[in-house]
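Take a look at the protein record below and tell me what you see:
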Amino acid sequence: MHALSAIWALGRVTLKGGLRDRLIQSLLLAGLLFLLSTLVFSNFSMRQPLEVAINYSLATVQILAILITLFLGLNLLSREIESRAGYLVMGQPVSRSAYLLGKYCGLALLCLVVVGFLGLCAAGGIVLVRLGLAEAPAIAWANFSLALAGILAIALLLGAVTLLFTALATSAVLPFLMTIGVWFIGQSTQAVKNYLDAGLGGQETPPLLGWLVTGSYYLFPNLSLFDFKAYAIYSLSLPLQQAAYALAYGALYILLLLLLATTLFRQRDMT
């Protein structure tokens, strides 16, 4: 079987399996209910209900997208390897690299479907909030779409991280904890580095702390690059240069993670 055909076939199977997963369906239903509650939460602010609605909706989409990516990504390999179901596929003329890339292809498609579905629900809630206002500013839908694209990029990056850790570990617990750690560090490194570069409250930065922060900044994915929610909330000018840089950065990082994952997975002892 041709490698690309095998990757695409495995991707479609993974997508269908993910959409049938009851956990994923439950999270999507919970997300739909959360997004429908946008009308309630937007009333918490009398002056800026539309801004609150956009912020709440995008935050809900991001949390659910990350949760779905983590839970499905952890099950892509660990569940099939533990049940030896993946051995049947790899017993066919399908390389381990094609098998792993096919799994990631399916995960990426599922992330696209999830973010797209939740994004449409979020847009519907925001429109309902705006219709209930006597005077409201126009919604910057291009900025809103860019914010959704940033959320999708974060999910795809974390999916690649999860796949890398799952390709090495024999259980799902360790990859889950390590991916959570990468997500937490990736969200924080930019702010911490900026704070230290500003002088740490007027005090001199300890060399060890500076090296640790700098090393983490360049080693772990900088997820704050993909946070465009403020541009959607306040209808700021589109940061096209920043978006292009974030796209190139994310694509390169994902390629490196998948290259490392396939290399290590080929060397893994499956007996």
